[in-house]
Amino acid sequence: MTKWYDLRYGYLGLETQSAEFEKALDWFVGAFATDEPLDESLPTSIIHCVEGDYQPPQSVIDASKDCKIEMYDPCKAYYSNDMSIMYRTGEFGLEMDHVNKCSRVYLGANIKSADLQLACIFAMDQGVRSVGGALLHCASMDIPGTDERLLLYAESGTGKTTTSVALSKAGFGLSGDDTAIVFFRDGRGWCLGLPRPGKVSRHTVELLPFLEPFMDAKLWDKNEEQQLTRETLGTVASVSDFDMKRIHTFIDLRRVDGEGVSIVPYLPAEALAKVVADRVLIGDDGLTDHDASRFDLFVNMLSTVRVRQLSVDGSPEEIVAKVREEFELEPV
Predict the structure, then answer these.
(1) What is the pLDDT of residues 145-198, one digit of tens each?
(2) Burial (0-12, 13-18, 19+ Cβ within 10 Å), 218
(3) In the chain, which ranges are continuous DSSP H helix?
(4) How does DSSP assign 264-310, residue by residue?
(5) Which DSSP symbol is given to 239?
(6) CATH number of the domain at 135-326, out of 3.30.1330.60, 3.40.50.300, 3.40.190.10, 3.40.50.720?
(7) What is the pTM of this model?
């Protein structure tokens, strides 16, 4: 039986007997699960997940290029126009079938929870791409008084969570704190916030003391973080639904000591370079066909929205004031 997730412009399906994998996928997109009949005019992509050790077909390896993914070393990965594979011997395997627009996940006996989540993310990424969208590492927020969103893009450690939560407190409805699903339709960029629970660092709580009452001193993890649910945040700040909304502004977040707080126009080409470096695989022979479509999506999206760069060497209050000024909103 297939479990379906409605991504508005397409459907992601899951076929598995692994309760753990289903739970992992639901952590990301469970809010989109649907029992409604599918709109047959929209594309679908299915994740097939089975338990068992994975041995990559030699024919696939022979037809593919070796791909080292630094962040997930020592995973082995190969990519081609027809299929990409990624695996860690004895733990998990993932085949991303670009021809049939589906994924096959193999869960080994020795799989760790981190690898389960990793396999889930890559399978979900393939599914989203197969229905014409892309995952983007950003916070997504509703702009007060409008039916449009801004995307807050930043490298890890720049201050994306602190900034997005501070803006949420100031009336910007937080839809997703870390990842969004983006599409390009009807000449515009569109966004679904990914509804997974957020995390905040101890440093963020120090900067935003209104979060302190919701923190448990016993729950800080090894990274000095703990979970902050949307329900909890919604008691003191503004949170938004996960529905599809048009993207109005893309903000690139940067932190440079001594620059203070400023928000300035930013070249779409500069923003594109950062997004491509993070989300598009470029091999020795250039873009594969499936990554070319994702590249085109980002080009089109960034060419039709307002693009800004926000420097955040300052207090959350200064940042909020500058962003509200940019959108011609009254001070808070």
Answers:
(1) 999 999 999 987 788 999 999 999 999 999 988 889 999 999 999 999 887 778
(2) exposed
(3) 19-29, 58-62, 113-130, 160-169, 202-207, 230-233, 268-279, 289-303, 316-326
(4) EE--HHHHHHHHHHHH--EETTEE-HHHHHHHHHHHHHHHSSEEEEE
(5) B
(6) 3.40.50.300
(7) 0.92
